[in-house]
Design a protein that fits this description.
3 helices, mainly alpha
Length: 81
């Protein structure tokens, strides 16, 4: 497999990465907002939820990209043998 097709496969993951990050962020912020409304605080839980959502989004993105990169390397090594 050529390097160009490998790059295209990784490029095709960008929508998944972006969507995964946005979904995690929305879940975190909305959960924090809901907790703020239940407890009566102003924005503390929303900010914490935003931070947790960003961390979760980065983790999901990292795992998705890293797993595909490792799979491509394994496939490349198998094809060479």
């Amino acid at each position: 497999m050529s390097r160009f097709t490998e790059e295209l496969k990784l490029l095709s993951l960008l929508p998944q990465v972006g969507l995964g990050f946005v979904v995690c962020l929305i879940i975190g912020v909305s959960s924090g907002y809901w907790i703020d409304r239940q407890i009566g605080t102003k924005t503390i839980a929303t900010l914490i939820g935003c931070f947790i959502g960003m961390c979760a989004g980065l983790l999901v993105s990292y795992r998705l990209l890293f797993s595909k990169k490792v799979d491509n390397a394994r496939t490349k090594n198998r094809d060479e043998k």
